[in-house]
């Protein structure tokens, strides 16, 4: 029990330190990962040069979580939800639950509210420093009230910058060299390629496959890997598996795009940009809003993205 208590205290210190790095614009982005949802805190570019407005997102939620947040006077929206549940108050939910006890035939609407639970449509958006601070306070001081966080280990924190009690994490990497199927077929049939070189004995028939796995790969890791691969000017393809509980987070691109486009209109030179949320060479586009990235293909200095709708 003493070990668990110390672990809890250490986590609170880490979360507190990371949050204030965000408010001071030293960290532009960090994640709080639980077994049920992912919380994304966003701020400025991480330069530390000026104050910034912070936003936060909970990737998916339940009716109970939303009710708890409203009880603590937190304002949030559900940008992916097409129903009107975000307008329902705690008193409304209590009244509907009482109706359910008396007449099951009148609870269709109540149950329809639960249809979005734990889905991308239940994503919660907290805008502005006051609401973000309220969410931070809930996660820090009222974790025991959250069913998904009680009785389990502390949430995992991911950040591109060091913070108190943090540790470096290295993903599992597997490298393999393989020969393309078309080259194997050509070597057996003795086919000659257009450049006049036989496939047999040609090193061009080989390619490298790199598999990178971890519990979660943050965007700054993906961005860094793609930048490294493209720095040599060689073509490559990459495919991604999105953590199911975090799919809805791409809705954050809407507000980010609006800020990026307004800044671009005021600046003629984008070469000095430190990237989105301080992630080097990372950009956002309005066309990617509400999409998850399935893969990218790099060729001749440009990327082609494969998207999947949220």
Keywords:
5-stranded antiparallel beta sheet, 310 residues, single chain, 10 strands, alpha+beta, 3-stranded antiparallel beta sheet
* Main sheet summary: 5 strands, antiparallel
Q: How many β strands by DSSP?
A: 10
Shape: globular
| Helicity range | 25-40%
General description of the model:
This protein is an alpha+beta fold and 310 residues long. The two termini are 41 Å apart. 32% of the residues lie in helices and 19% in strands. The chain is built from 8 helices and 10 strands. The relative contact order is 0.15. It has helices at residues 2-23, 63-71, 90-102, 108-114, 129-141, 181-189, 219-230, 253-266; strands spanning 29-33, 38-42, 55-58, 124-127, 156-158, 172-179, 206-213, 236-239, 291-299, 302-309. It has a 5-stranded antiparallel beta sheet. The chain has a 3-stranded antiparallel beta sheet with strand order 8-9-10, with no helix packed on it.
What is this entry, summarized?
The chain has 310 residues and is α+β, with helices and mostly antiparallel strands. The chain has helices at 2-23, 63-71, 90-102, 108-114, 129-141, 181-189, 219-230, 253-266, and strands at residues 29-33, 38-42, 55-58, 124-127, 156-158, 172-179, 206-213, 236-239, 291-299, 302-309.
Helices and strands in order, then pairings?
Layout: H1 2-23, E1 29-33, E2 38-42, E3 55-58, H2 63-71, H3 90-102, H4 108-114, E4 124-127, H5 129-141, E5 156-158, E6 172-179, H6 181-189, E7 206-213, H7 219-230, E8 236-239, H8 253-266, E9 291-299, E10 302-309
Antiparallel strand pairs: 1-2, 1-5, 2-3, 3-4, 6-7, 8-9, 9-10
């Amino acid at each position: 029990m003493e070990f668990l208590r110390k672990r809890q205290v250490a986590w609170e210190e880490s979360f507190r330190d990371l949050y204030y790095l965000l408010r001071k614009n030293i960290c532009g982005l960090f994640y709080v990962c639980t077994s049920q949802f992912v919380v994304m805190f966003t701020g400025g570019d991480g330069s530390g040069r000026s104050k910034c407005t912070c936003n936060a997102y909970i990737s998916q939620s339940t009716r109970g979580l939303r009710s708890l947040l409203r009880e603590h006077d937190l304002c949030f929206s559900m940008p992916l939800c097409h129903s009107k549940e975000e307008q329902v108050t705690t008193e409304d939910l209590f009244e509907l639950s009482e109706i359910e006890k008396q007449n099951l035939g009148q609870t269709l609407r109540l149950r329809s509210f639960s249809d979005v639970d734990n889905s991308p449509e239940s994503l919660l958006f907290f805008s502005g420093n006051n609401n973000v601070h309220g969410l931070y306070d809930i996660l820090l001081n009222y974790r025991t009230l959250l069913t998904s966080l009680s009785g389990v280990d502390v949430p995992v924190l991911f950040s591109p910058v060091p913070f108190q009690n943090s540790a470096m994490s290295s993903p599992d990497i597997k490298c393999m060299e393989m020969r393309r199927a078309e080259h194997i077929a050509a070597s057996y049939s003795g086919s000659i390629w257009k450049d006049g070189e036989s496939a047999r004995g040609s090193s061009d028939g080989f390619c490298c496959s790199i598999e990178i796995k971890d519990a979660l790969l943050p965007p700054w890791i993906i961005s860094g890997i793609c930048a490294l691969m493209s720095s040599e000017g060689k073509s490559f393809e990459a495919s991604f598996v999105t953590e199911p509980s975090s799919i809805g987070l791409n809705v954050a691109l809407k507000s980010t795009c609006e800020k990026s486009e307004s800044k671009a209109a005021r600046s003629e030179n984008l070469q000095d940009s430190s990237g989105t949320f301080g992630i080097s060479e990372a950009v956002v586009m309005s066309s990617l809003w509400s999409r998850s990235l399935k893969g990218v293909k790099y060729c001749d200095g440009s990327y082609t993205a494969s998207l999947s709708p949220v």
